[in-house]
Amino acid sequence: MENNNELEMMRAQVALLKEKLDKEQLVSEKLLRSIIKKTVRRLTFERMWSLPFILIFIPCIIYVLVTEIKLSMVFAIVFGLYMIAATIYTFYSQRGLNNKTVGTDRLVDTGRRLIRLKRLNARWLRISIPVSVIILAWMFLEVDPDAPYGVPFYRGASFGLAVGAVFGTIRYVKRRRELKDCIRQIEDLTGERLD
Contact 98/44 with Cβ under 8 angstroms? Predict the structure, then answer.
């Protein structure tokens, strides 16, 4: 009789422990979802902010390149097309990743979307760096160094290139680290390998 009471007490303790673990996992999942939502919110904000900027920037920069700096129309069009391609690729890489899907999807599905985003960002980097180098070299070759704006243009463009490269690298590394942390936490919580 005493063994039955001990057995019932142990079952009750196991049930209580299981309930506590389920609650802890639920809290961990909610916390993880809030972290992922914060990351996705920032990505969405950057994406939505870049669209009007690009739509205003492209015509203005083409106008300035052609009329003020006297670069060829072919260069200005190629530069504009590159900026449009970059914007389209940004929207494509973040497709299906928003706060609504993060809040309602299974964590594994969200993790797979984050992995897709991380891979597409890395792929874009491998494409955009060589293309940017070609476009910048082309731009430097087209600017007349004897023109009154030649030397200041070279200095300003070089400074802008250096500052942009530093900030772009910092932003890329930070975003990649955030995505990696979210993916790792999803894997830890779900026990599934997502790669």
Answer: yes
